[in-house]
Write a structure and sequence with these properties.
By secondary structure, the protein is mainly alpha-helical. The chain folds into two domains: 217 residues, MFS general substrate transporter like domains (Growth Hormone, Chain: A), CATH 1.20.1250; 194 residues, MFS general substrate transporter like domains (Growth Hormone, Chain: A, Up-down Bundle), CATH 1.20.1250. The longest helix has 33 residues.
């Protein structure tokens, strides 16, 4: 992989070692967890950024296999119904409730690296049980029921355990990546992951569909490869500078950050303290929370079932559906930088409203899809391209809007509350969508129409959210 962009980002870090405050810099220990209290040179930060990028690439391979289209196709091949698909899709969202607990536990450890290693290592290794079961009981008549139940159980344990590491991992990355370079670096890291999705998902789809032992065993083989990729991603974390929560969060000092931002180093004590309201007293944040939860519910109501519609209702092959999903990833990758530059110019809220309207109408366009050649080769690729392009804007601007609304102090509390509440809304949405698709009138097409209406309704609440330093709608 070409690391020229990473090297360019790291080159902006001053050559001077980034030291922790004097009292902490003198702490000496043989434990790897105290690396953050020692010198973190420019080369060490560069190595950490490269390793984190590779970590993201291999982790995305694992995520593609254990979630999304490939897992949905596996369950459908076993005979799973819409309710079970909705339950599986809701598990990662419910797992967000574990993030505050994970943050609490990790703050009492002495190493971000070892905490993430054990948390993610165990959660990813659990899928090995499903891979073994696929080949062990695959020929049994009771195999479908056993494998569906085992998939649900492993997904619950894996996602909930993995969620314990989400907040500590973000805190670790915040310590390693200088504040002025975060946007560029994480944009690069996400682009590398998206490019991996673009290339790997179709290849894995072809492997599953063409495997001589059947698509179920084909998924078992791909699952083994995904588990190996997930563990390889953790190996790259060995090359990242560790942080000890007990002795300090950042190997990069505030003085170095001020130099990077090219702002004169002035004492913050000269400025009067700004009172920070608690999140339940912050009216603007509560308005954002209302929008965020309504939007998450409306999108989650139908999101897991577009692939179900293609695989079941239109009876398309997994290789063709993975190609459509790659178009979504490609459009997302290409337009991400465009939306970021536009958001810097006009703000995030106007983009969320304008693009949100287009994204809300997309489910209605699925009502016109059929098995004719025009739909298969023109409309479906176009819908996936539009979905990828609009999702890039919505994901980016939603995150930026949340960053702008949350005060500089106690941001973790605001982010944790938003993630936990959106997790509940998303889980309720996918579960309700599964029940509606199975028992409601109109089936999946009726669900798409309902989701479209609710998305438009959710956008109304966004009008009342105030974004700092942007043009008024």
């Amino acid at each position: 992989m070409d690391f020229t962009p990473v090297n360019a980002i790291a080159a902006e870090i001053p050559v001077e070692s980034a030291l922790m405050p004097g009292s902490l810099a003198q702490v000496k220990s043989k434990s790897r967890a105290l690396t953050a209290t020692l010198n973190a040179s420019k080369d060490e930060i560069r190595t950490s950024l490269k390793a984190s990028t590779l970590d993201g690439v291999f982790a995305s391979l694992f995520s593609n296999v254990t979630g999304g289209l490939l897992l949905t196709n596996f369950l459908l091949q076993l005979g799973a119904n819409s309710t079970e698909i909705g339950l599986v899709a809701s598990i990662p969202m419910l797992a967000n409730l574990m993030q505050p607990l994970g943050a609490y536990i990790s703050e009492r450890t002495t190493s971000r690296h070892y905490y993430c290693l054990w948390t993610y290592g165990i959660s990813r290794s659990l899928w090995l049980g499903l891979a073994i079961a696929i080949f062990w009981v695959g020929s049994s008549h009771a195999a479908p029921g056993i494998l569906i139940a085992l998939t649900l159980g492993i997904a619950v344990l894996s996602y909930f355990l993995g969620a314990l590491g989400s907040a500590p991992w973000l805190s670790w990355m915040a310590a390693l990546v200088p504040r002025p370079l975060r946007g560029r670096y994480f944009g690069l890291r996400n682009s590398a992951a998206n490019l991996t999705n673009l290339l790997s998902v179709p290849l894995m789809g072809v492997l599953i569909s063409e495997w001589r032992g059947g698509s179920t065993q084909g998924y078992g083989l791909v699952l083994m490869l995904g588990i190996v990729s997930g563990l390889v991603s953790l190996w790259f974390q060995n090359f990242m500078v560790d942080v000890n929560p007990q002795t300090g969060q950042r190997p990069i000092s505030s003085a170095i950050e001020a130099d990077l931002i090219m702002i004169p180093s002035t004492s913050s004590s000269l400025l009067p303290p700004v009172p920070t309201p608690r999140f339940w007293q912050d009216l603007n944040f509560l308005k954002f929370l209302l929008y965020f939860n309504l939007w998450t519910f409306a999108v989650s109501l139908s999101a897991p079932f577009f692939n179900v519609y293609l695989l079941n209702n239109l009876d398309l092959g997994i290789s063709q559906v993975t190609l459509y999903n790659s178009l979504t990833a490609g459009a997302n990758l290409l337009l991400l930088m465009f939306w970021g530059k536009l958001a810097d110019r006009i703000g995030n809220r106007p983009i969320l409203v304008g693009v949100g309207i287009v994204f809300s109408v997309l489910p209605l366009l699925w009502l016109t899809i059929d098995t004719n050649s025009l739909s298969i080769w023109v409309w479906l690729p176009l819908l996936h391209l539009m979905a990828g392009g609009t999702m890039a804007a919505i994901d980016l601007c939603s995150s930026n809007l949340q960053l702008g609304i949350a005060p500089s102090h106690h941001q973790s509390t605001y982010f944790g509350m938003a993630a936990a509440s959106a997790g509940i809304s998303g889980a309720i949405g996918t579960t309700a969508g599964g029940f509606f698709a199975q028992f409601g009138s109109g089936g999946l097409l009726g669900l798409f129409a309902l989701s479209s209406v609710l998305r438009l309704a959710a956008l109304l609440s966004l009008i009342f959210v105030q974004e700092r330093q942007i043009r008024s709608l």
